[in-house]
């Protein structure tokens, strides 16, 4: 695929991808390949999964290093990190929530998942104590491997889902409990991909959050691992957000001229 017709190669935004809990940057591989064929520069951040504020500071440092416009896309818990990190970042022009949450100030993963029934995560988690930086103990969360395919990746090839279960990256308990202090979607246009077969983040919760944010939404019959099972539609929505961003920037430039 060639660059989008309403963007030159120089104008194409950098796409920054933020994975969520129980996944890693490789979960975006299919999406990255699709976007690269369209000409987009792409960075898939290794989200630390240590807590909203720590993770957001890590991502924000990357954002501040990037020249030119940025389109961000986040999956699952990554939506909290993106919502916090992008606030006030002048180069971030669009937010894309993928089977994700778009929290308001004061909201956490645990609090949001309690709003609607349907998430199977609470009954599928294994807690592992690990040493903390202060000399104490904190808890890391994993999805039980025998439950991972059903809860996280029901429409992924079974062999791939087993590998994902074995290589999943844990999130600290604080990542699920911490709230955001900023809400970037209040000032940055957003798009949301709602996964209607999601057993991680209930579809009704995704719809509620997208509506509250005034987000442009697309619904797709997919599991929580939609970026793995159906990378094409995910890339399509990111491309849509990027094109809309380019048109808006061109209109602003024309008015200035």
Automatic annotation (TrEMBL):
AB hydrolase-1 domain mapped to chain residues: 15-236
Pfam families, per the entry: Abhydrolase_6
Alphabetized Gene3D superfamilies for the sequence: alpha/beta hydrolase
Protein name as catalogued: AB hydrolase-1 domain-containing protein
Lineage of the species this protein comes from: Bacteria, Bacillati, Actinomycetota, Actinomycetes, Micromonosporales
